[in-house]
């Protein structure tokens, strides 16, 4: 057992005591390893020795045990409060000053952070108590700094309001941005409105169609070029992205017979269609509107009258003329291409014809009793002519400078 007797005059802190103890212990004779052990440190109180701390000595080094650590942490707590008091924010303190103060008190090299390392030297109960004490101090400091920041920001704002020109509340507000309809949508709405005014209903159908509805039911043979991969988007062997809205007519006729609601039938079928094609006047996706009128006494003359009336009202030109050129479509017989007079010439506008008896046969309508006509128009083509657009792709580029012209 080794005994040390250290005499001090005046009061010292536990850190100072720790430093003196280490130097005295290291001065003991013998090898460092021979001095390993536990030193019991007593202080005299009223002439009687009282245990103050245990110091653990190992491999020639010395660590303060829990009692000394607790004393050090408790001395730190009032020191933190003194630091806060000394650095209380004045009216002249800037945000940068506050950030620098926060770094000095709470940063990685601050006294508080260094002292937190002492917690590992405490037993669990002491660690809980002293840890709570330090966290409370840390939270108090952060709250004071944040409050001072808020006050400083408010002070800066008040100063700016006093020196900068005031807001003129009589100035007109900024224009509110409002959306608008796409020119293709505007065209579709106009087409539907005009046909609805002469008794046509609007019908819709799926954009993914079976081979039967897109081709077979419309009398398109297996060897027809439209069935080729270079013209049609195939999803699988039996499903395609519809290449026209004519399948809607087949669905509608089947449903009408099932519900005993026709013929007569009078519909238009607007919607998106898909073909493998892309240039200034063609797009892989575009809009089409198909028309169908089925009744007992329908003739090609009815078709001509409906188409000419629609085009004249759509373009608001009573002098607009329409001509029909013989053509071929598998689902109509006879078939024709429709041209209209435009800028001194003729411009192709769509296809039409009388519904083929085979199409009626696929849906169960008696072709001996009923006849009908069908026509198809490209919606983008109508929009290009109505608005004077020379490139179809402008409708799909979503350039707001272009689209804002139509609203």
TrEMBL record:
One of its GO terms (biological process) is phenylalanyl-tRNA aminoacylation. Its cofactor is Mg(2+). Pfam families: Phe_tRNA-synt_N (PF02912), tRNA-synt_2d (PF01409). It comes from the Bacteria. Coiled coil: none annotated. Its EC number is 6.1.1.20. Transmembrane segments: none annotated. This is Phenylalanine--tRNA ligase alpha subunit. Tetramer of two alpha and two beta subunits. CDD domains: PheRS_alpha_core. InterPro entries: aa-tRNA-synth_II (IPR006195), aa-tRNA-synth_II/BPL/LPL (IPR045864), Phe-tRNA-synth_IIc_asu (IPR004529), Phe-tRNA_ligase_II_N (IPR004188), Phe_tRNA_ligase_alpha1_bac (IPR022911), Phenylalanyl-tRNA_Synthase (IPR002319), tRNA-bd_arm (IPR010978).
């Amino acid at each position: 057992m080794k005994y040390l007797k250290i005499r001090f005059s005046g009061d010292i802190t536990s850190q100072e005591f720790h430093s003196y103890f280490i130097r005295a212990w290291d001065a003991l004779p013998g090898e460092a390893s021979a001095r390993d052990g536990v030193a019991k440190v007593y202080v005299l109180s009223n002439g009687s020795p009282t245990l103050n701390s245990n110091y653990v000595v190992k491999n020639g080094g010395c660590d303060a045990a829990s009692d000394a650590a607790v004393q050090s942490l408790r001395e730190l707590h009032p020191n933190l409060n003194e630091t806060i008091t000394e650095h209380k924010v004045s009216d002249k303190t800037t945000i940068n000053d506050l950030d620098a103060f926060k770094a000095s008190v709470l940063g990685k090299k601050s006294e508080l952070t260094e002292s937190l390392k002492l917690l590992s030297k405490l037993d669990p109960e002491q660690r809980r108590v002293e840890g709570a004490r330090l966290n409370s101090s840390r939270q108090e400091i952060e709250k004071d700094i944040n409050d001072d920041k808020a006050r400083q920001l408010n002070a800066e704002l008040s100063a700016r309001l006093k020196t900068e020109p005031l807001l003129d509340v009589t100035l007109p507000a900024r224009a509110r941005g409002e959306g608008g309809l796409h020119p293709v949508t505007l065209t579709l709405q106009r087409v539907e409105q005009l046909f609805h005014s002469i008794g046509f209903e609007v019908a819709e159908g799926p954009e993914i169609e079976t081979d039967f509805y897109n081709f077979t039911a419309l009398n398109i043979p297996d060897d027809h070029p439209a069935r080729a991969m270079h013209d049609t988007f195939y999803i699988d062997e039996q499903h395609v992205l519809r290449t026209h809205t004519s399948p809607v007519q087949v669905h509608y006729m089947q449903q009408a017979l099932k519900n005993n609601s026709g013929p007569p039938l009078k519909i238009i079928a607007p919607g998106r269609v898909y073909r493998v094609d892309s240039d200034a006047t063609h797009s892989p996706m575009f809009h089409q509107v198909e028309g169908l009128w089925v009744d007992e006494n329908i003739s090609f003359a009815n078709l001509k009258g409906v188409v000419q009336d629609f085009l004249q009202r759509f373009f608001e030109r009573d002098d607009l003329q329409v001509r029909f050129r013989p053509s071929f479509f598998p689902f109509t017989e006879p078939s024709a291409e429709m041209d209209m007079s435009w800028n001194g010439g003729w411009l192709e506008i769509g296809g039409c014809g009388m519904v083929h008896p085979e199409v009626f046969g696929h849906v169960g309508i008696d072709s001996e009793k009923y006849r009908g006509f069908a026509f198809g128009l490209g919606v983008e083509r109508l929009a290009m002519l109505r608005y004077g657009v020379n490139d179809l792709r402008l409708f799909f580029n979503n350039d707001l400078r272009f689209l804002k012209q139509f609203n």
